[in-house]
Amino acid sequence: MDNETKYQTVIKSMDEYTYDWNSDWAEDPSQPILKITKSSLGSHDWCPKKYGFSYIQRLPQDQTEAMRKGTVVHNAREDFFKDFDIKKAEGMTSEELQSYCESLHPIDDYVDIYLTMAAAEAQRFQEAKDEGKVDEFIPIVNEGLFDAEITFRANQSKKFPLQRDYKLHLQGIIDRVFREGNALIPLELKTGPWKDWKTTSMRKEMAFYQLMIESAPEEVLIKNGLTKDMRVTHWGWYYPVSNYMYVEEAKKRSMTSVVDGIAKLLHAYETQNFPAKFYYKTCSHCSFFGICDEAQTDSWL
C-alpha cells in the first residue's frame, strides 16, 4: 500500500466531522464530531456571531480583492518551491540567482510582491549555500494538508471548564514547514501589510499548526514528508508587502491561548450562544453587516 493510499485510508477511518454540530452528540458515536480549523477558531475569537453565519449556517461571503490576492499569491509561492532547481541555482552568480528567482514567478497584478519575494529567496539561497545547507532551502512541507483527531478534556482550560470531554477533528493547510535536522519551523505567508499588533494572533495561528502537526497520525505525517520524532521548535510569518519576515522559538503560552480558544468555542456550542462582538470600524466591512441585529442597532451611531 503506497503512502497516498495509506493517507486516504486513515482519513476514512476518522470520524465524520462538521461545523453544524451539537455538543450532545458527544455521547452518540454515530454522530459527527466538531471540525476545527485555524480559520474557524480565529473567526469565533473575532466574532462568535460571524462564526455562526460563516461556519454553522454556511452563508456566502463577498469575494474581496484581498481574498483574491491571497489566493493568487499563495499559489505563486507554492509553485515557486515546486519549480526551484537547487542544482541549477548552485552554479549561479548573485545577479543570475536574482533573475532566476524572479523568472519563477508569474506576471500578473502582483508583480511588486513577487519581486520582493524573489529578492528574499535569492538572498536566503545564497546564505544557505555559504553555510552548506542548500538541502534545507526547499521546505519539507509546501501547502500541506493535515488532519488529526484529539480528545479535548473537560478541564483542559482553566478559563472555560466544559461539561464533558470531546473528540475533535483538526484540519488545515500549512503554507510551508522548513526543517533543520529534526526540528520543524512552520512559516505562514500573509499578503496584507504587517502591523505589530498582529503578533498575538500570528502566535495563536502557529500554535494551532503545532498542535495539528504533533497530533496527526503517522500516515498523515508520512504523506507530508514528516516523521513522529520531528518537533516544532520555532515558527514564523512572512509579510512580503511589508518586506517583513520573523522567526522565533515556539511559545508555550500561545498554545495555552489556543487551548482556551478551543474551550471557548466548545462552551459556545454547549450553551448555543454565539453573540455578536460589535466594533464599528471592523463590522462595517463584514459580509454579514446587513443581517446582523447588533450591527443594525443605532446605539453606536
In words, what does this structure look like?
By secondary structure, the protein is of the alpha/beta class. The protein has two domains: 3-63 and 139-271, no CATH class; 85-136, no CATH class. The protein has twelve helices and eight strands. It has helices spanning 3-13, 38-46, 48-56, 65-83, 86-90, 94-103, 111-130, 199-215, 218-223, 252-271, 280-283, 293-296; strands spanning 17-18, 33-36, 141-152, 166-180, 183-189, 231-232, 234-239, 244-249. A hairpin with a 4-residue loop joins strand 7 and strand 8 (244-249). Helix 2 crosses helix 3 (48-56) and helix 8 packs across helix 10 (252-271). The longest helix has 20 residues, at 111-130. The radius of gyration is 21 Å and the shape is globular. It starts with a helix and ends in a 5-residue tail after the last helix.
Tally of alpha and pi helices = 12
Structural class: alpha/beta
Strand content: 15-25%
In round numbers, the mean pLDDT is 92
In percent, how helical is the residue content? Answer: 40-55%
Secondary-structure element series: HEEHHHHHHEEEHHEEEHHH
- How many beta strands in the DSSP annotation? 8
How many domains make up the coordinates? 2
Q: What Rg do the Cα atoms give?
A: 21 Å
The biggest beta sheet, please?
Answer: 8 strands, mixed
Give the termini distance in whole angstroms: 63 Å
Shape: globular
Contiguous uncertain segments of 5+ residues: none
Brief descriptors of the model:
single chain, 301 residues, alpha/beta, eight-stranded mixed sheet, 8 strands, 45% helix, globular
Walk me through the topology.
Blueprint: H1 3-13, E1 17-18, E2 33-36, H2 38-46, H3 48-56, H4 65-83, H5 86-90, H6 94-103, H7 111-130, E3 141-152, E4 166-180, E5 183-189, H8 199-215, H9 218-223, E6 231-232, E7 234-239, E8 244-249, H10 252-271, H11 280-283, H12 293-296
Parallel strand pairs: 1-2, 2-4, 5-6, 5-7
Antiparallel strand pairs: 3-4, 4-5, 7-8
Helix pairs in contact: 2-3, 6-7, 8-10
